[in-house]
Amino acid sequence: MIYLGADHRGFQLKEEIKRFLAEKNYQFEDMGNFAYDPNDDYTDFAKLVAQKVSEKPKERKGILICGSGVGVDITANKFHGVRSALADDIATAQQSREHDDTNVLSLPADEVDFALAQEIISAWLSTPFSNGEKYKRRINKIE
User: Fold this and answer.
1) Kind of pairing, strands 61-66 and 2-6?
2) Distance between CA 141 and CA 61 in Å, rounded?
3) 48: enclosing H helix or E strand
4) Is 66 a catalytic residue?
5) Catalytic: which of 43, 99, 114, 129?
6) Quick one: pLDDT at residue 2?
7) So what's the pLDDT on residue 54?
8) What is the CA radius of gyration of the chain?
9) Structure confidence by residue, pLDDT tens digits, 108-124
10) Which of 70, 73, 104, 135 is most buried, judged by most C-beta within 10 A?
């Protein structure tokens, strides 16, 4: 299950990502915002997504979007078992999975258009954790 969340700056990109995920037959749930609201706060949606991922961090994933991606990334990483990565390119998304076994992807709507977001998400979802000893050791230190 993939949980999605975005504030007003990420709202349009989230709506496009929902169509993309549906076309690719991914199971997902939109945690909001459900309408464009220029006064909403990214923290509210990042919290909802991170809570869901935190409940089953090895099974669930999240995709968060705000203007810079930084706010949602910081918020998500406050939750136990959540490892969120801010990625604005394919290589960063892949490495975050290979090395850090990330379960939340934070995207900067101000930097990433829909075409690039599709590529980043596809790479992130299809890249497995390497299971390398040094990476497992580092994750254990994070925990």
Assistant:
1) parallel
2) 21
3) helix 42-55
4) yes
5) 99
6) 98
7) 98
8) 14
9) 999 999 999 999 999 99
10) 104
* The pair of three-digit structure tokens given for residue 119, joined into one six-digit string: 């590529």
DSSP-assigned beta bridge partners for residue 61 = 2
pLDDT digits (tens, 9 = 90+) for 12-44: 999 999 999 999 999 999 999 999 999 999 999
Mean of all residue pLDDT scores within the chain: 98
Q: What residue type is assigned to position 138 of the chain?
A: R
CA distances (Å), origin 94, targets 28, 34, 67, 90, 127: 20, 29, 21, 6, 6
Query: What tens digit of pLDDT does each residue of 66-109 get?
Result: 999 999 999 999 999 999 999 999 999 999 999 999 999 999 99
CA 106 – CA 53 distance, rounded (Å)? 13
In DSSP terms, 85 is beta-bridged to 105
Task: Quote the CA–CA distance of 106 and 99 in Å, as a whole number.
Answer: 16
- pTM for the structure as a whole: 0.97
Q: Is 80 assigned a catalytic role?
A: no
CA angle 86, 92, 93 (to 5 degrees): 75
- Counted residue by residue, the chain has a size of 143
Say which of 2, 66, 76, 87 is annotated catalytic: 66
